[in-house]
Amino acid sequence: MRTLTRAWPDSTLARHLLLAVLGLVAVLLVLQGVSDFRRFQLAEMAYLGIAAGGLTVLTGLNGQVSLGHGALMAVGAYTAALLLPDRDASVPLPLVLLAAAAVALAVGAIVGVAAARLHGPYLAGATLALAVAVPGIALYFKDTLGGEQGLRVVLPEPPTWVLDAAYFVTGQDLTTSGYVALVGWLVLIVTYVLLANLSRSRVGRRWRAVRDDEVAAQLAGIDLGRARVSAFVVSAAAAGVAGAVLALSVRLAAPSSFTLTLSLTLLAAVVLGGLGSLTGALLGAALLTFLPQVATGLGTDAGLSDIQAAELAPLVYGLVMVGVVLVAPAGLAGSLRLLAVRRRTRGALSTTSKGTAR
User: What beta strand segments (E) does 163-320 contain?
Assistant: First the structure.
């Protein structure tokens, strides 16, 4: 254990990069051994995790509540759809993802400036209006954005070097669903490394200072408005790139994919996992992705019809949500962290008392 501790890099960036490499290896190994349906679910978990990661930075580190991140995902999804209308589109996929993040960032800057003076329920109400209004834009500009039917997204062919690299690592050909899942998890890993470094930087400390005590932060020379807008912009960019991954996964950008339910789902993932924790955001995304299918399977095994089993999923999801809030009010990751801190403290006190007795 001490050897592992000594081998662990001291630099925050080096630690995050090492974790990213280990995570990428784990993703490749998992994608190798699962079916195409599981790969589709893993892609879903990836885009929910990206958006939840951005939201947990905004809500957990800066104290702003947003109910409109589903709308920001729609911005990213429609940007990807406009850039990838058919197989003749020559825009490389990385540029599509960057464009989706940039457009969502610009929208987030406008919304963030307007919302910088709002707090609590007023901010939640303003972002709620965003979540309701943005999908309607696609209906109004139906000639450009496809109306109710939405826009089709054509997935570009995977580069040859990606196919060769995947075959070299896994020994298997990379399927289309595997390619989408791999892209989603690569984006998630890059996003999490950036968010983790940002939260440990001076910018992250300013966000926490504004969240903890606005008066003290202002007396310390922190511009409250700038801190809030920067947190909103970063979170919006993450939501935009998550929307692009969603569009690539389902091959469609349509208003029905970005209802208020999606925004509430993201907020639920953040609360379940633990506010301010990227690990918690990923745990929450995993719960929201796999729990409905597990509940449906249990219902089918118990003798329920397919429809009854499907209706059981929201009930189980709600019960799990209430249970986590009651048993682990700090979220799954937050409660595990508190348990670890208490255990270390108890061990240190025990060692001190033994030394005093001698």
Answer: 252-253
Whole-model pTM: value is 0.87
**Cα gap 105→82, rounded to integer Å:** 17
Report which DSSP code applies to 67.
S
Cβ distance 242 to 80 under 8 Å?
no
What phi and psi, each to the nearest 5 degrees, are found at residue 157?
-65, 140
Candidate from 237-251, 271-285, 325-339 with smallest mean pLDDT: 325-339
Q: Is 183 exposed, middle or buried (0-12, 13-18, 19+ CB in 10 A)?
A: buried
CA–CA distance, 234 with 194 (Å, rounded to integer): 10
- Which pLDDT score, from 0 to 100, does residue 357 have? 62
The mean per-residue pLDDT over the stretch 303-332 comes to 80
Q: What are phi and psi of 216, to 5 degrees?
A: -65, -40
Please tell me what DSSP assigns to residue 61: I
Per the structure block, which two tokens stand in for 350? 């025990």
Contact 71, 258 (CB under 8 A): yes
Query: What are the two backbone dihedrals, phi and then psi, of residue 289, each rounded to the nearest 5 degrees?
Result: -80, -45
The closest of 117, 133, 83, 123 to 103, measured between CA atoms, is 83
Burial grade of 22 (CB within 10 A; 0-12, 13-18, 19 or more): exposed
In contact, 93 and 156? CB cutoff 8 Å: yes
Q: What are 270-297's pLDDT values in tens digits?
A: 888 888 888 888 998 998 888 888 888 8
Reported as a single tens digit per residue, the pLDDT across 53-96 is: 999 988 888 888 888 888 999 999 999 999 988 777 778 899 99
C-alpha 166/C-alpha 175 separation (Å) is: 10
